[in-house]
Amino acid sequence: MKKILVTGGLGFIGSHTVVELQNAGFDVVIIDDLSNSSIEVLDNIVEITGKKPDFHQLDLRIKSDVKEFFNTTKIDGIIHFAAFKAVGESVQKPLEYYENNIGSLVYLLQEMRDRNFDNFIFSSSCTVYGQADELPITENAPVKTAESPYGNTKQVGEEIIKEACNAHNFNAIALRYFNPVGAHDSIKIGELPLGVPQNLIPFVTQTAAGIREELSIFGDDYPTEDGTAVRDYIHVVDLAKAHIAALQRLLDKKNKANFEFFNVGTGKGSSVLEVVKSFEKVADKKLNYKIVGRREGDITAAYADTTLASKELNWKTEKTLDEALESAWKWQQSQS
Ligand code: WQD
Prior knowledge:
The protein is of the alpha/beta class. It contains 11 helices and 13 strands. The chain has helices spanning 12-23, 40-49, 63-72, 87-92, 94-115, 149-168, 200-208, 236-251, 272-283, 307-313, 321-335; strands spanning 3-7, 27-32, 54-57, 77-80, 120-125, 172-177, 179-181, 215-218, 230-231, 233-235, 259-264, 270-271, 289-292. The chain is globular. Bound molecules: UDP-4-deoxy-4-formamido-beta-L-arabinopyranose (WQD). UDP-4-deoxy-4-formamido-beta-L-arabinopyranose is lined by residues 85, 87, 125, 127, 177, 179, 198-200, 203, 215-218, 229, 231, 272, 295, 298.
């Protein structure tokens, strides 16, 4: 049975990916520093799959600890989620973002080089495109100057991986996520935002749950159908399955270059108001919201061209926005 290391494996996307890895027959070992996740998620994973992943609480910024881990653990692949990911916070704390997101990446790649193991899946983001000139966004769209240190850590991260693959002949795939939302059908794992949610969906569900007074919709003067910004909201379980497809591609040596990247979205754009309406329908509940000014750094629209991912990964999304919002709402209700 192949053993896969999942860094950040107790986080939102990481935990859903651990479940799908176990469902696909992989042995999983998790590294997580618990800075943006909780240890209870480990038990929740076991409740879903009946299998307990090995778990190491470890700070990947500490090179000696990373080395020590690999002295005792042999693996067949890495899916690397562990990173700070709050766009706004990254503007206030750029050095912490580079130290954590880039430092830990370099230490992991050095171990891959020194111990001759292979198959690296990198959690990247559609933010590398900024506001793309053409929609839907294909993998040929130019990478633009990052709008935040967070976005830059994804761009620089991809460059580092590409150069390491060329120099040391290992194989990697970067998945450029659009907007992950929702929760596992079991409602035992989901998104656990720390403090006031920055992202739309957790703010919507917390407003509906009465935790937040009302949702502020950041701008209705965008050049879109209803004036609100458009994004590609992908169910987190569909996103998790894309990681299994990418990993299998490397394990089966079907990759066509030693570094590849794929856009991972539904291919459908939804405006903020469309999301609100969809939520009100699935939750059968009126949502309290007001329109305010645009948020600094937001783009008008982003949604994926899914052609390459569906062809090369033999993967496509199966769940709808309604299903994602319904699972997000059930998850929120389970938290109170
Ligand atoms: C979505 C839309 C907001 C909150 C970010 C990161 C990206 C990725 C996903 C990590 C926008 C609007 C939001 C609110 C609102 N993260 N909104 N009121 O900004 O598309 O992407 O999260 O990889 O890297 O940049 O996601 O959920 O913050 O915003 O009106 O209270 O909802 O303006 O149009 P975003 P988001």
